[in-house]
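Researcher: Structure for this, please.
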Amino acid sequence: MTDLQPWLEADILSLGVAADEVRRRTLGSATVTYLRVHVVTAAHLAIGATVPEAAAEVRVHELPATLDQACAQVRFLHAIAGRRRVAAFSMADIEERAAGGWGTVANVLQALVAAGIDDVAELPVDRLADLSASVAALRRAGADPQRVTLSHAITDRKLQIIETVREVFAAVSSLRRFSPLPRVAPADKPTTGYDDVRMVALARLGLAAASIEVDWSLYGPKLAQVALTFGADHLDAVSAGDDTTLGPRRSTIEDVERNVKAAGFVPQEYSPVG
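Model: Predicted structure, token format:
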């Protein structure tokens, strides 16, 4: 991706200004969307989880030991989700389990879709051998993939990752959002806010018209607010509940909207299609 190469060594202020200009020019508005997500675990499902009324999407990340258990979890999740979108598991984990004896990727995905998933919870470009093939498999099974994620921090592969995402977004119209910050931070070398906003800005410059998101539950209000000025336009995984005992990274809607407005943008709740 030769057009991004010069930006790898650019100073942080110049990079931020360029990304913000691209965001405003291509998206054409000052709107920042946010998605209210209810994340559940196997433990929650075992005791009969319920879904807050405010949730637009329900997610479970951890893949169980067997396909039967995975389908049972999805069926229960689908039942309690009602009209809400259901996203379950990581596509990388699904492909690994398929290769490990669960069956073909196609058959595993068909079973999960039949059980009730609309999409995977994670589509990690850095862990998938072929992002395009993974997206195609999801679509053939009847799922509706809408976003691409990143599992681990990347260093020398930034441009390669962004180029891969750009190519697949150009080919698949249902893909709308890219989450360029890792879900898993290495314990020995955690990412810094400086590194994170640089990656957000590079993603915006490389994927001008896509939605660039930051996970509110993982990164919190301070990083999310700065990321908005570096090209991000969407906040993912905003808690569907207002329980302040969950801590500052499970903040209320008032806090989310206040942070968006303080960054100079207009907050708008997002409803995923499908």
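Researcher: Any notable elements?
Model: The mean pLDDT is 91. The radius of gyration is 18 Å.
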